[in-house]
Amino acid sequence: MPSNYPGFKYGADRETVSAAKVKALESLLIEKGVITGDTVNSILGYFETEMGPFNGAKLVARAWVDPEFKARLLADCNAACEEMDFPEGMSGAEGEHMRIVENTPEVHNIIVCTLCSCYPWPTLGLPPYWFKDPTFRARVVREPRKVLSEFGVELDDSVEVRVWDSSAQIRWWVLPMRPEGTEGMSEAELAGLLTPEAMMGVATVKV
Amino acid sequence: MKLQHNLGGLEGLDPVNTETQVFVEPWEQRIFGIHTAMMALSNHLGDSLPDYAIEEVPTEFKSFWTWGHLRMGAEGMHPFDYFRLRYYEKWLGGISGFFVSEGYITQEELDARTAAFLEDSEQAAAPLPTGGDPAIDAQVLKYLQKGDSPKRPLPAPPKFSVGDRVRVKNVSPGEHSRLPGHLKGHTAEVVLVYEGAFTYFFKTEDGIGVPMPVYSLAFKNEEIWPESLTEPNSLYYNDIFEVYLEAV
């Protein structure tokens, strides 16, 4: 039977149509009493102020200055979160069971979700575009060094690469290495060096 | 086989797109928010941990909606559509289709309003409706803070221990699966047995959805893919539900 498949063609109005459709949907859902006029904005606001990579950055900076805290963070990420002055909810949505793996001179870790986009919301927020892109998900598991080089990270063959695929309900993330030249920095200054990419294993931390 | 389940290791792809924004178009934020609200208002949360008083929340939303449902829709798509559409485009199609099929809105209402926004830029730019019961948003916030943990007491001791070799079963995924297809038939070493058991939002045809042990498995890439296609010195870890595994 011949396929009617139209191919990968996009209309010039691709984004305009999606924008109109989602606004139509949201306005109907508000009128029908499914959500309120504030629901979507309050969710987006929550990810700007409560759940985001700023939390992960604080955890990593604390781990860099306090080896005992680092040991507790690696052993039980959720319990370590409770020690911090974080907003309520660090074991909330998509963070119920988090684990962190440590990069060292010998081992480099990367996270992926080949099935879709699992991600530790409380510590890293929402996943960036590249993490959700099927090309990254397909390639990083078989050729992680090549993918890393496309992100600008070159690893020696002596470094073991570990790729962590979130196929069940553990949400993984990465404790990157502390860069040299940061000895005099405060915890807050150290936190300012961190990016989501570093905490997912596709970037190193730069001063 | 569904291509959506078998992404790992595909050949012939382009360099990765390293775009670091979460949302590449403003409209994508809105569908993300709608989906998150649906998860936070889902009728299954009354039986969840913690025990939400979901029936008392004054929303008209009375359906069961989780990540599993969103994913089931994506797994049911024509595979070429799955790759043609961007991430949140799939969400928009699946979620609006769900609201129509469950009877919250009609397709005619949605199409007419979409057309009105496309034809009249003033209407398209007008503010969204306001109002609604604040108790709905209180439940959404509570869900974000408390989550929906799948962890449960172990019903029976785990079948496998750290150091065991196990093989991933070649089970049919059915409508929804949490087993990456590219692992099927391959062997791995158990490196961690997670404490307790894990359930899933609902029972699937391939066997998850009741509390069972979950294992962290380490796969050698050269055991999954031809050695000529792999790189040196790397390991690939997955968290796999016990029902998907058999002894070697």
TrEMBL record, chain A:
Q: Which residues form a coiled coil?
A: none
Gene Ontology molecular function: any one: transition metal ion binding
- What Gene3D superfamilies has UniProt attached to this entry? Nitrile hydratase alpha /Thiocyanate hydrolase gamma
Q: Which residues bind Fe(3+)?
A: 113, 116-118
- Entry EC no(s): 4.2.1.84
- Has keyword Lyase? yes
Where do the Nitrile hydratase alpha/Thiocyanate hydrolase gamma domain residues begin and end?
Answer: 18-203
Q: Identify the keywords attached in UniProt to this record, alphabetized.
A: Iron, Lyase, Metal-binding
The record lists the catalysed reaction(s) as: an aliphatic primary amide = an aliphatic nitrile + H2O
The record's Pfam families line, in alphabetical order, gives: NHase_alpha
Family per record: Belongs to the nitrile hydratase subunit alpha family.
NCBIfam families, alphabetized: nitrile_alph (TIGR01323)
Report the protein name in the record. Answer: nitrile hydratase
Lineage per the UniProt record? Bacteria, Bacillati, Cyanobacteriota, Cyanophyceae, Leptolyngbyales
TrEMBL record, chain B:
Q: Where is the Nitrile hydratase beta subunit-like N-terminal domain?
A: 1-126
Query: Which residues are in the Nitrile hydratase beta subunit domain?
Result: 149-246
One Pfam family, short name: NHase_beta_N
So what does this one do?
NHase catalyzes the hydration of various nitrile compounds to the corresponding amides.
Identification of the protein by name: nitrile hydratase
Could you confirm whether the keyword Hydrolase appears in this record? no
Please list the GO terms describing molecular function.
nitrile hydratase activity; transition metal ion binding
Assigned EC number: 4.2.1.84
Q: What is the lineage of its organism?
A: Bacteria, Bacillati, Cyanobacteriota, Cyanophyceae, Leptolyngbyales
Stated family = Belongs to the nitrile hydratase subunit beta family.
Q: Which reaction does it catalyse?
A: an aliphatic primary amide = an aliphatic nitrile + H2O
Highest rank taxon of the organism: Bacteria
Which keywords fit this entry according to its UniProt record?
Lyase
Keyword Lyase, does the record have it?
yes
Q: Which Gene3D superfamilies match?
A: 2.30.30.50, Nitrile hydratase, beta subunit
